[in-house]
Every structure is written in C-alpha cells, then in structure tokens.
Design a protein that fits this description.
The protein is mainly alpha-helical. It has one domain. The chain is 71% helix and 1% strand. It has 10 helices and 2 strands; from the N terminus they run αααααββααααα. Strands 1-2 form a two-stranded antiparallel ribbon. About 6% of the residues have low confidence.
C-alpha cells in the first residue's frame, strides 16, 4: 500500500532509539557494574519514542481500517503486538523506572514494524471487510499482544529471579540489585506489578473477544460459531488466565507459580492463531 519507505523509516527510528537505550543504560551499566547509571527516562527520550510510534500507529491504521481490502497475517499480528508493547512501556515510564526495558523492546519493534512491508498477509474473506469485524480483530489482537508481552515479562522475571537466588548479585545478601546490565532493569516487585496489570487488561480484552465472537458470530463471521482449534484453544487459555487471576487476587499467587501459569496460558493462546498462521503462510505457503 505504501511501499517500503515508511516501514523502513519507522524501523530505523526504533532501532536508533534501541541502540541509544542500550548504549546509555545496558552497556554503561555493564562497564560500571551497575553504578553511575542515570535514573528514569528523560523528557526528550519520551518525545523521541513518540516519533516512530506515531508513524507506526498511522501504518497500522491504514492497514487495518483505511485499506479497502483487509490483509492480515502473522506479520501484521506481530506489528500490532510490538506497537502495543511500546505504548505500555511508554505509559509505564511515567510511573516507574523502566529505562532498562526500552533497550529490549525498541529493537524488537524495529523488526516487527518492518515485517508487513515484506509479508503483506493473506487475502481475507468478504465478511472481514466490515468495520465491525475489523474492530473485533483489533480487540482480539490487542488481547493476544498483551498476553505475549506478559509471557515475555514472565520469562524475563524468571531469569532475574534465578540470577538473584544464584548469588550473581551485588549489594549484599539481600539480593536487591544485580550486577552488569541486569542492574538497569526494574526491581522484581515492580515487574510483578506490571505483569498483573498487563494480565488483567489482557483478560478483559480476551473475554470481550470471545464473548462478541459467540454472541455476534453471524454478524462478524457470516456463520454460526464453529468449535475449531482456534475456538477450543482460545477457551482453554481463558480458563487458564481466569484461574491465574483468581489465584493472584484470592490467594496471593506470585513468584514461580504465577510465572508458570502465565507461560502455560500464553502457549495455549499461541496455538490459537499466530502459530498456525505462520505455519500456513511461511512454512507451507498455503495462504
């Protein structure tokens, strides 16, 4: 629709900012063993992130809503996912010190924002051209993206926890800080708070996605609900995340228990859409 230039520009800006955060947070932190690193994110850095994010937002709007024909595959799904990731950490940077996360998120955004320029996505059926379906699809992908972010968050927390309990930390026996570039990341307690905020919002959107899919199936898909692999795995993931949130707010689940449930729910949800689409589009070349 646009050609490669706007995608390349978005990717380049994300990559440049990712290098900046790595160079000023992770590399400096590694060289100084966690000392002398500036706190927080400067105002100009927040404004700079908005430049590629705004362009990325426009590209997604044009692909999902302005285009006369909706084409949606794994590349668009990943692009939406990293768009939302950048947004989450940009907003959270107003509250928490998450400067170390930017060095991880922005390079991934650089890659995923560029993918739709090379993988246009498969042609979609006629019913997908309606505005209602596109909104439904966007809500579904936002839910999927939030759980993907939560899974990455959980994986990172698992690594941090093992390093803390493995003696690879500084600051005495309390293990409150880590050596090298790991010291630039937020504390585990902060990451845990962020994790459950992301999970709660993702669960609300997943509930909305499944609910509208069942109730308005005829209007959205032009046919009654079909219990295919996407529906079954979607429902299974809903129960897993529901159990996790009940366990968290009812019995105070945290730590490794919460991380394992998060990863189990994500892997179940992964089987529902993006995994199968990637196999069909790239490996088998059927769509």
């Amino acid at each position: 629709m646009f050609g490669i230039l706007p995608y390349a520009l978005t990717s380049l800006l994300y990559a440049a900012l990712g290098w900046h955060f790595w160079n000023t947070r992770w590399r400096v932190c590694a060289e100084a063993a966690g000392a002398g690193v500036g706190t927080g994110i400067a105002s100009w850095e927040r404004l700079a992130i908005l430049a590629p994010f705004t362009l990325h937002s426009y590209l997604l709007y044009a692909e999902l809503f302005a285009a006369p024909e909706l084409r949606f595959g794994f590349s668009q799904a990943l692009s939406v996912m990293l768009w939302l990731t950048v947004l989450i950490y940009w907003v959270e940077s107003l509250i928490y010190d998450v400067k170390g996360m930017q060095a991880l998120v922005l390079p991934l955004a650089a890659v995923c924002a560029l993918l739709p320029a090379f993988f246009a996505g498969p042609e979609t059926p006629a019913y997908t051209q309606t505005f209602q379906f596109r909104v439904h699809l966007l809500v579904a992908m936002l839910a999927y993206s939030l759980f993907t972010i939560a899974a990455l968050h959980a994986a990172l927390m698992t690594v941090l926890e093992r390093r803390l309990h493995g003696g690879k930390h500084v600051g005495g026996p309390s293990g409150e800080s880590l050596a090298g570039p790991w010291a630039s990341l937020p504390p585990l307690m902060t990451l845990e708070v962020l994790l459950f905020r992301i999970l709660t919002l993702g669960f609300v959107l997943l509930t909305l996605t499944l609910g509208t899919g069942f109730v308005f199936s005829e209007e959205l898909f032009g046919k009654a609900v079909r219990f295919n692999h996407k529906t079954v795995f979607g429902i299974m993931s809903w129960f897993i995340f529901a159990a996790l949130l009940v366990g968290r707010y009812g019995w105070g689940w945290r730590g490794r228990t919460a991380l394992r449930w998060t990863l189990a729910g994500f892997l179940t949800l992964l089987l529902a859409y993006v995994g199968s689409m990637f196999v069909l589009e790239v490996i088998l070349g059927k769509v």
